[in-house]
Structures are given as C-alpha cells and as structure tokens.
Amino acid sequence: MGWFSNGVRVAAAAAWLVAAGCGGDSDDTPDAAVDRCGNGRLDFGEQCDDGNTNDDDECTTACVFACGDGIVQASETCDVGIAAGEAGACPMASGDCDDGDACTVDGVTGERCTAQCDHQIIESLIDGDGCCPAVDGAIERNDFDCAPVCGNGILELSETCDTAIPAGEPGACPTDCDDGQPCTDDTLVVPEDIRPGDGACRATCEYAPRTVVENGDGCCAPGADPTTDDDCATGTAVCGDGTFQPGRGERCDTAIAAGEPGACPTECPTDDACTRALLLSAGTCKAQCWQYPVTATVSGDECCPVFYGGNNRTDGDCETSCGTPAQECELGTDDCDENCRIERTAFRIVSLSLADPHIFWDAGNGNCPDLTSTANNTVFPDAIQQDADMDGFADLTILNVMKPLNQVDGESTAMDIVFGNCLPNADPAMTQCTADPLTPRISVTATNAATGTCLDVVANTVTDAYMTPPAAVDGPCFATGAFDAPMFQLGSLTVPLQSARIAGTYDADPATGLVNGLLLGFVSESDAAAATIPDSVLLIGGKTLAEVLAGGIAPGSCDVTAGNPIGDDRDVGPDGTTRGWYFYVNFTAAVVPFDDRPTAGN
Q1: How many domains does the chain have?
Q2: How far is CA 523 from CA 441, 488, 498, in A?
Q3: Separation of alpha carbons 99 and 111, rounded Å
Q4: Is position 234 within any domain?
Q5: Is residue 465 situated within a structural domain?
Q6: Whole-model pTM?
Q7: For residues 283 and 223, is the Cβ–Cβ distance under 8 A?
Q8: pLDDT tens per residue across span 353-375
Q9: Distance between CA 281 and CA 181 in Å, rounded?
C-alpha cells in the first residue's frame, strides 16, 4: 500500500502505546504532536512531512499534500480539489481544453495538479478538419477548408473558372459566349458575389434555342418555312416531299418517318452528363440536334469535365485526381499527359486526290469530260483550306489521331479517325484543330511495318485508263484493319464506305507527317444513288454520286451505253456479289496541334 499507509499504521500504534502507559514521554501532548510536523518523519495525523518549512512545494507546512487542497499552490498548474468549471480546476481530457480554434490540436499534458492544456498549431493540409492553416499552398484546391481566391490563377473547387488563367487554357473564364451557331441565343452569366469579386470566377455560358422569326439572322426558326423566314430556304429542294437532299440545303425532311435515314429530329436526348443537347429549327427541314460540352466545374451536375480542369480537387463529381470517366492512364507513366489522357499525335490530311474512280460531267452531245483529271478540279484543296459555309472551320478536316504515336516495327497502336474542326488556313499544316462532338469518330488499330508494303489496291478494281493510278503505301508505314464508315466525311459530301482501310508512310521517326497515304473503301450502287453532291460544287452540284461515276445509273450521255470514254467502271464488293465502286484516295498529312476536348458543333 506504500509508505504513507504504512506510516499511518506506525503512527497509530505509537499513539496506542502512549495511551496505555507503555513508555514514551508523558509530556507528549497534542501541542507536541503539532510541533513534530517538519521533523522529516511521517507522524500520526500527517499526510506528508518533507522536513522543511516551504509552503510552495508538494507538502505544505501543515504536513498535508498541496494537490487536492483546493488551492493552486506555486508548484501547481491547477488543483484537483477545485470543482470542474471553476477557476483553477484541472483539465481531465482534451475536451476540457477546447480553445475554439480549428487550427489547433487541443490536448492535456502533465497529470493531476500539474495538468495543463496544450494547443499544437496545425501546419498540415487536411481536408475536412475545419482548418485552413497559415502555410504555403493553403488554398481551396489543396485543402477544402480554405476559401477560394478568385484571380489567383488556380481553378478551385467552388469556382467554374479563374480570371487569371489565360484564355484557351483549361479553367479560363469565358468572356464571349458566341458559339457560331445562329440558332442559339448565347448568354454570359456572371453570378452575384458571395465573397468580394468571386462572382467573376463562377462565370458560365448558357445557350437556348432561338425562337424568333427574323429574316437574315441565319436561323430557320421553329415552325417557320421559306414563306415566313428566308433563312429556311433549301434551294431546289422541296421541304416535306419525303426526299432528303443534303446537297441542296436540307438537314432532314419532315415527311420522312422517324427512325428512317433523313428523318427530322423531334428531341435530342443524350446519355452523356458532360454534353448538353438542344433541338434547333424544330419542325423544319433544317432541324438539328446541336450539342455543346459542359466546361464548368460545378459540383452536383454529375459531370466531371476532365478537359476543362475537372478533378477531385475542383469538382465534386470527379472521383480521381484526373477526372472520370475520361481517365485513360496513370500520371507518371509513359505517354500519359497531365489530364491522365494518353498523349495524342494528330496527322491532318493536307492534300487529297481521288485516284479511282474518276468523276465525269454530262456536258451534252455525248461529251463526258473527266473532271478528276482537269486542272480545274480544286474541290478538295479548296475544302481543306477554306470556310465556304462560314461556320468558322475549314470545310474538309480528316485527322488520323494516334494514341499514342508508336512507330516500332510490328507493334500496334490505337488510332481514331476524327472529322474535326480546324481553323481555315492557306497552309493547312499550320492550324489548330479540335474534335467535333457531333461527328462520330472511327476507332481502329494501326499496325506498323518498317519495310514492305502496308496497303495496296484490291485486285481487279483499278481502271488502267486513268493516268495516275493509286499509289501503294510502303514502309516505314502503318495500316489499319478493315472498318465500315457509313458517314465518311469528305467535306460536305458524306460517302458511305464499306471495308475501308487507311495507311500512310512515315516521313521520319518520330514522324512529323505522312508522305504517302492511301484511303480505300467500297461504295455500293444503292449508297452512291442516295449520296447527293452539294449544290456548291461546280457543274455537278445537286447530282447523286451514282450519276457522275462511270457505269453508274446516269440519265444522260455519261452512262455505260453512250459517250462515256471509260465504259463500265463498276467493281464487285467484298461480299462477291454487290456492284459498286472501290474508292482510292491518295493523301499526304502533317502533324498539327490537336485539342481532343470537344468543341460545340452542329
């Protein structure tokens, strides 16, 4: 039980012996007992005896312990004899030491009458602890407990943008919401400030379908027609006749049944939380679903806009540091960019020539000139460089996007054929390109060969009468496997290709371009008869593709039986029975800057 309890027993026994007359000094009176306090021995009635007269240590001059006497002595920080909540009471747990400061860790050091509160300053960035510590890097993006700072050049969780981020970079604030689409009303929305000046860092663009009928605004308003809105004019096409004529200004035909090719949309659903869709020009032959990407980092909209700075530090809908679902690779691994996307190399087709079959024009009187062979055939070069439809982008953009670029002999890499949006430029290799979300990309696999032939023509499908035959692709090169492309975009002409393939010869390692490329694919007679050449194409605009090909179903002198100098140029398709034409297009390509973030399209 310790010396104190044993001492109590000894003192009690001595007192009994004195009382019984068994020795001791008869002068041992209670006063004498008091005089014994300070003799260094634990006598009867004492709690302690340290042999001194110092009242500032653990044992007072009354030989009782200072701790618990209800008085905070000089040697104490508190006293356990003082009731909790009173001045001088001892803290028993960290809860007794709460200083109300979220940036301190509260605790107790010492014990009993030497216990005291300790407050450690937090210097670590910890989400959810309620503290934004006074240390470098203490911003909302690094610690959710910190308030956002608008204008610090960093996209933070409660911001949709930051005014100090340069235009064009992920997280830059919009200053102009013009989407180039005449059938939308564009609005820049800047919310009211929550903190001084922070509304500018929550700016967003909003788009709504234009409903006002106004001649010359470029929009065919919902329910309008050429008699009420001259923007609804479709050239020689008749809206509502049940025939879809895209080459004559129609986007659809209102008389075509829903679900059939050329039917007009009546709604524009999307299962992508990061894409917004609007129905424009509803009820007209210019009706279209127009989509635009979500660019704002807004928690709760189910979208993680990874291409626009979305991650789990900027948007509550993101699960990873790079965003979902667009994460393709892990940071720090080969060919992985800062957005956890596989690095892309985009080869833009900068020159294009149709090698086989050729295009013929019925000039009358049995005269059928070959337009493909003339110096006046500038349709493809012009479309690659120019913006005839005034939508802000070059009219013909085909990109072979390697993910990533891998030129190792025998190895394969993923490749997307992207019909993108490139800025018009006299030098098509010197332009910025982006993806078009409205035109489906074609995903294929490209396989390399250091030597030999990667792709050549299909046997018995090339006409010897043409001056320049299709050029085979030799190594170092790549070639894709066969794919079907129901909507292969050659500018404003949509060509349905079957069993298509693409190949190209690399100019260097790493490549900066393709010095010889070949696109081949089969077009059936029925598909050619349904494809209309745009009215803007000189001499043959408005005709079907089948009408201008040798052996096609032309109504004039360029059919098989009359003045066609080639005769029947039709081939047999890959199924061995279907008649049509194998198309061979030679091209060159250059690596261009490419942003795979989708842009608004129509």
Answers
A1: 1
A2: 19, 11, 6
A3: 20
A4: no
A5: yes
A6: 0.54
A7: yes
A8: 888 888 887 777 667 777 776 54
A9: 12
